[in-house]
Predict the structure of Putative NADH-flavin reductase.
Amino acid sequence: MKIIVFGATGRTGRKIVKQALERNYHVTGFARNPYNIHFQHPLLEIFMGDVLDAEKVKEAMQGHDVVLSALGIPDSQQRFQAYQNIISAMNAYEMKRIIAIGGMGVLMADEHTRVAHTPEFPEQYKEVSEAHFKVYEELKKSGLDFTFVCPPNIIENEKTGLYIVKTDHHPGKNSISTGDLADFMLNVINDETFFRTRIGICNS
């Protein structure tokens, strides 16, 4: 299997790349600055490009089976444009599987209310949460087999394997390690249970 990782130089992206190589996947790390990936591997290819450049994204995507995205773009419009570029390239090559990271605010607090719309949700995170939700809506319309993973606080740490997930809702605790987030994303690549879903995750 050949996977492409967007956001490959970020905290979670680096964990995804390393764990995917440990599973003997062929990995392309898409990065604006490839020198931020500080290791080499026979199964690793680095593709230098900007995810806002639709032609570069399409060029990088050719020949891959799965997209994993750990993009951390702060600007809401640029985030949306990046995912539009990814979705467009996937459709061009008839790729179906994408696992991407969003945010906890996309999940449901109850049957009618998203977490981002609850009184206790921090005001400073509402704008980015709405940007994540816009991406989620775009993925739903795309026809792709997506999994939108919506973590709480992401903590730099290794994989423990001790985490819980819940479809559509937040499982309850306030953090997840980068290693465990990467582990889950790789575990569900071929698991149809998680196709076309948003997933809450936290360490147990």
